[in-house]
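Complex record, two chains
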Amino acid sequence: MSIENDLGAMIGPLPDGMSEGIALGTGIADGYDIYDSPLGRVAVAFNPLGVSAVDVADDAFPDRFSARHGRKLFRSEAPSAWSMKIAPAIEAGRPGNLPVDLRSVTPFQTEVLRVATTIPRGEVRSYGWLAMQSEHPRATRAVGTTMASNPVPLIIPCHRVVRSDGRIGAYSLGGPDNKWRLLEHEGADPGHLEELASSGVRVQGNSATLIFCHPTCRAIRRSHPDRVVDYRSVSQARDAGFRACQLCKPA
Amino acid sequence: MDELTAALARNLDAAFPELVELMGPRLYWGLRGICGDHQEAEDLTQETFIRAYRALAGYERVRVRALMLSPWIWTIALNLGRNHVRDRSRRPTFAGWLDRGVADPDLPDVGAWDRRFKALSAPQRSAVVLRHVVGMGIGEISEATGRPEGTVKADIHRGLEKLRQTMEMER
């Protein structure tokens, strides 16, 4: 055997795991790992641009992911720079400084989802409010569709967005019961919100400050119950001499 | 190779895994011969492919179709290798994927070759590996290393000579 032949025989297979690592590093494939959440175990997918999906952690998740995003999925730990940020983002219900990959949605939907991240924990806003805040006041229905297609529920808190009549409404991550559980977990009272909705209450005013709020705004929740006045609409509150809260921007 | 460059030009994401499958083993084992260390060869292989992917994503289709893949990939790999030590402390965040690392392949003789190559100078190692491990032509090696063909030939000749001497001493 010549030394040249020996050298040629040096080539072995690519070590196990490297082609997956390359697919993940280039972003051709996403990785995913399982995290705890207020709803139990959830699957979180990620790629070099950020977190790309949060979904029910069942066997069909990789197939659902590939069908929607057109990329393969490998079980993997998250990049070290983000692995510390995923669990806090899920618990807080906002991305914070965790990057999110929103390539799967339109620019309009990206803006709506961005506005949704500003809804404080334990509070809710309506589809109509979100449409207004994203400067597409007539796009209430499109906002509803956007919430349904939020690729990263829990991290972008679409569970804090309720129907324009005040009812809790649908939820993409495992159905409406999960939306109730999340709101309860955050200290909101979904049963009470449903009652307000069915009695037609949209905003509440404080008779001492003459400021009206969304019913879950921390300003109105801090108010003395005797001073809280229910209104069926923004215009009714305005007619009664109230002005809109700067915190929750009900109008 | 022509088919692969055409496929890469047509649909980069679909064809790239094929590039990794085709060139990955030679890239890893070639780098292993050049740097003599599993971890470093692994890092360099992954980073080479990631850079290659980004470059391909930015190229015009005609340019991708005209690429000579082997010397092109090796130009990237050797440049990375030169800067690797310097860059290690400030690797980009995506390298988080790669932090875990994969196990050193458990093959006989791997350690022996790692030792033998240490007797060669860096240019000799690259030239011998690219010629006899990877199987590139002199012209391609010259392109990838940026050294004249005559110098490459001399590096290979002297490198092989040193390897022979080292192996004689092992007996």
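Note: The CA atoms of residues 30 and 73 of chain A lie 5 Å apart.
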